[in-house]
Each structure stands twice: as C-alpha cells, then as structure tokens.
Specification:
- With 111 residues, this protein is mainly α.
- Helix content is 58%, strand content 0%.
Amino acid sequence: MTLLRRGRQRFDIFCSPCHGRTGDGHGMVVERGFPAPPTYHQDALRKASDRHFYEVISYGYGAMFSYAARVPPADRWAIVAYIRALQYSREAPIAELPESLRAELNAEPDR
C-alpha cells in the first residue's frame, strides 16, 4: 500500500493538473484552455504496458514534456502503479470488494 500512497501523492502533484485527479484528462489546466490529454480509461491506454507510462513520464509525449528531472525513477514506477489503480477502479467487479465497501455502495444516501 505504501507504493500506491506514494504514487497517488506524486500523481496529484505532477500529473493531476493536466490529467485530473481521476485520470479522465480534465485537470485544472485543461479548464483554463490547455489541450486535454487522453483519458487513462480509454481502451488503448488500458492495454498499454507499464513501460509505456514510465517512458512517457521520463521522456514526454506529444504536448507533455519530460518529467525525468522532476520525478525520480522510483516515483515514476509508483505513479504507474497508481495509474493502474485508477484504471482498475472504473472496472472493479463489485463482488471483489470487501463486504464493508459493498454495504456502503448499497446504502441509502443521506437526506
């Protein structure tokens, strides 16, 4: 869990301004008129290798510049792990969730 916590922290700092906190491609800089990056939830990026994400962080891609000088290699891998967790969060089978979370999903909303 430490890896994912670190990945989330680094993602929130370096990636979410463009990619959004959920990886949908609608971060705050996009809201201010910059081009939107692709969503991590599209099929092509779900199928992309972990190495692909690591290399994009390292070398940049399209309008995205390299983060190699800002994000050390271990943190790049932590970000990749967090991106995978974001992707999985959209497709996680309810039956695989802990009972406490399933109960929370089925609870009536507060009024």
